[in-house]
Amino acid sequence: MMAEQGQSLFVTVGAGGPGQMIVKLVGPAIGQREVPIIGERVVGELERFSGLKMLVLDMSSVTFMNSMGLGMCIDFRNRAAKSGAKAAIVGANAELTGLFKMVKLEKLYTFAKTVGELS
């Protein structure tokens, strides 16, 4: 169960299991308007999170993501990697999963249907 730490208009950030930070993106669309708001919130939380082992992006309510959203995902993964943490995407629908595979994001993230599958 996720203990919520904070929510903004397009994202909820909380702790999952030990060392897990769960970022739930609030859709349906992640694009030019949403990315700066999400980025500011998540980067701030990443800087404050100690002992990060896995960054989990929950995409279960997202149906569309443009190139800015993809860039944001890459940035989050790179920031997690600098902390020595892994990154995962959960709950992505078939269209998003296809998009992520097309741009080779599956090389940067572990994909799962639920957070429970990551353990």
TL;DR?
With 119 residues, the protein is of the alpha/beta class.
Strand order of the largest sheet: 1-2-3-5-7-8
What would the average pLDDT be, to the nearest integer? 91
Distance between the termini: 13 Å
Biggest sheet architecture: 6 strands, mixed
Radius of gyration: 13 Å
Q: What's the overall geometry? A: globular
Low-pLDDT segments: none
The helix-and-strand class reads alpha/beta
* Percentage beta strand: 25-35%
> What share of the residues lie within helices?
25-40%
| H and E order | EEEEHEEHEHE
Q: Count all strands and give the number.
A: 8
Explain what the structure shows.
It contains three helices and eight strands. By secondary structure, the chain is an alpha/beta fold. The mean pLDDT is 91. The strands form two sheets. A six-stranded mixed beta sheet has the order 1-2-3-5-7-8. A two-stranded parallel ribbon has the order 4-6. The radius of gyration is 13 Å and the shape is globular. Helix 1 runs parallel beside helix 2.
